[in-house]
Write a structure and sequence with these properties.
- Helices cover about 60% and strands about 5% of the residues.
- It is α/β, with parallel strands linked by helices.
- The strands form two sheets. Strands 2-3-4-1-5 form a five-stranded parallel β-sheet, with helices on one face.
């Protein structure tokens, strides 16, 4: 009986599919925030202008490999190949034909996926080059998706060059890379290059909200925004973090996802602590400033990470001061209003001094024997810098007033003469 229970438990665990795989886009329209690329690829399918080589580059988790898989499916989709109206109006893999199902089940004989990180030698390229000569068993194209393409050796790139110069008409190569600059110009110049952009926080949060609705998970917008900001522009990272949050907040089958729990799991410093810093600067409150330092130290937060985020906090004030709006700030609407309201307490000059001082300490603190002391000294220095900025501002105003008075005296003297 115990063995049966163990087997059933293991079967239950194996049946689980992580969110990043379960909700992986299956169509171009499912890909988030890369419309400039998906539109181009769909138009190429509509018009039949299919290149023999594509390079998809960008940071991790933005949809490069997913786009390559969708493009590969669409090029051999039976409905796309045979139905002119569907190809013109939809230009998406149908997902139900034999070709699409074979690919989804990892049984396709016309679509090959390689990882250049582990298959980067001349011999690997030679095998691929020999295989390219043979046409597809069914469908129109034989498609090769090569991930982490930049990791091919120099000799492998040279061996691959001739095939890319004069490929057979049935061959399409799709290369994905996070480091386009490492791909030789002789290779990249023979391909169409698509640069994937970093996904904005609102777009990530909106997609996570859709996933939570589909999974019947209740989660507040602040938590979603926190996860999205932590993901740093990568949708896959955000979905993996969401998986962690769900596991962390589930106890005895009950899910209680709230901002405090998400902050604890992700080890994220609450935004209120950064506003405490700026409040202490304005109020010249050294006690409050040292309390922030103690909070960071006692809770085990990384001091370098705190300083980087503090620079971002000052940057948000600078954006509001220059743009007169918070539209360029990636945060919640509530915090945007707060930045707009509190930006008036600083001058651009004082904010620039605060940023410079923080960046300088952030670069050196990892080599300092007592990082907490270094942090405390910086936070106290920020109060002094802002005071000096205020004094400088008053001196500038006084100088302007003196110049205006001198101008009036000179004007009256000339009038009497």
């Amino acid at each position: 009986m115990a063995l049966q229970n163990f087997t059933a438990s293991k079967r239950f665990e194996m049946n689980y599919t992580v969110i990043a795989r379960k909700y992986r886009p299956q169509k171009f329209s499912d890909i988030t925030a890369q419309e400039h690329i998906t539109r181009t690829l769909q138009n190429a399918i509509r018009t039949g202008r299919i290149a023999h080589g594509y390079i998809f580059s960008g940071s991790r988790g933005v949809g490069k490999t997913t786009s390559a898989r969708i493009l590969a499916k669409a090029l051999n989709c039976e409905k796309v190949l045979t139905d002119d109206a569907y190809r013109r109006d939809v230009a998406e893999p149908c997902g139900v034909c034999d070709s699409c199902r074979d690919f989804d089940n990892n049984q396709s004989l016309n679509i090959y996926e390689f990882d250049a990180a582990s298959n980067n030698s001349v011999d690997d390229v030679r095998v691929l080059r020999d295989n390219v000569r043979y046409g597809p068993q069914k469908g129109r194209y034989k498609i090769y998706i090569i991930d982490e393409f930049h990791m091919l050796s120099t000799a492998a790139f040279n061996a691959f060059l001739k095939t890319l110069e004069e490929p057979p008409p049935h061959a399409v190569f799709i290369f994905a890379t996070t480091e386009l600059h490492k791909v030789p110009a002789t290779i990249s110049s023979r391909c169409q290059k698509f640069i994937y952009k970093r996904i904005a926080v609102p777009d990530i949060a909106a997609r996570l909200k859709e996933i939570c609705a589909a999974e019947n998970i209740a989660i507040d917008d602040d938590s979603l925004n926190l996860i999205a900001r932590k993901a740093d522009g990568a949708m896959r990272d955000a979905q993996s973090l969401l998986d962690q949050v769900i596991s962390f907040c589930t106890q005895d089958g009950v899910r209680d996802i709230n901002y405090a729990a998400v902050s604890e799991l992700l080890n994220v410093i609450d935004d209120e602590k950064f506003f405490d810093v700026t409040d202490a600067i304005v109020q010249k409150d050294s006690t409050k400033m040292l309390a922030v330092s103690q909070f960071i130290y006692e809770n085990g937060f990384d001091i370098s990470d705190f300083l980087q985020k503090l620079v971002g906090h000052f940057r948000n004030f600078l954006v509001v001061k220059h743009v007169r709006s918070s539209r360029l700030i990636e945060t919640t609407d509530h915090l945007k209003k707060r930045y707009e309201q509190e930006a008036e307490r600083f001058t651009v000059e004082s904010l620039m001094q605060l940023v410079s001082a923080t960046i300088e300490v952030e670069k050196d603190i990892k080599f300092f024997r007592e990082p907490q002391l270094k942090l405390e000294l910086l936070l106290l220095k920020l109060i002094e810098l802002n005071e000096l900025g205020g004094v400088a501002k008053r001196l500038d105003a006084l100088e302007a007033a003196v110049k205006a008075l001198q101008h009036d005296i000179k004007k009256k003297t000339l009038a009497k003469a």
